[in-house]
Specification:
single chain; alpha+beta; globular
Length: about 260
Amino acid sequence: MNKNFCYTSFQLSVYLIFIASVSCSPTKNQNYPISEANYWTNDKREKYLKNREDSITWDKQMFDDDMKWIDDLPSGPFQEGVFPEPKYDLHGKFKGVGNMSGQYKVNGKTILMNSFFQNASTINEHYLDTLKNDVFFHIVVLTDTLDIVNYNHLSSIIISRNHPDYLGQGFYKTKNNLIDYSAFITAERESYAIVNTRLFNLKYGKTILIAPQKDKSLRSLQIKSTKISKDEVVNYTQELLKKEEIIRFFTNENAI
């Protein structure tokens, strides 16, 4: 599939698995020149919006490639659509997006994690400093369901078609519930997520914990973390799950 979409599949093990990140382009630790000219501006946003409506700027080859898969695009929670998009290079070089996921145990209960990241580029370098990439959304979910045959208990995708804005989405299935989530980040560093209609402004914490309850209701915790790279997020999650507050959140008598 010749698309700048990133998909994940999961292989499960007994205690803890690390799922290798999927990146749409190689990650390189390049030293981008830092100058005001590289920062995303209101003028660049206005130009981007105009280019969306201007067929002269569209990447026709990318559109034709996407149309080949229009009947096979995955859904969940939002059905993917095929729109003509401006050529990526008109708005800053595309350096890749991806995800990093994992599985953990807390007092015998299964915890699943997923995260979305974007690679360093001239658009975000002033925020990333020396990081090669930036995790902009990190979800940690309690579950009682693992499908180790068809792996249909979860799904995840991150999409670059809104470059220089990026969107990721996915779901987790439990025995009595479905956890849908979607998150995005813009070139202006605005980032939000939705988990089963609950809104999260990620400026106040990119880490979202979800604990489904036995009565089918949900509980959430939002945690403000420091900058995290894709290479750090697995260990960060592991350390987070050792905290007493987090253990109680996932293992209280009302949680599944």
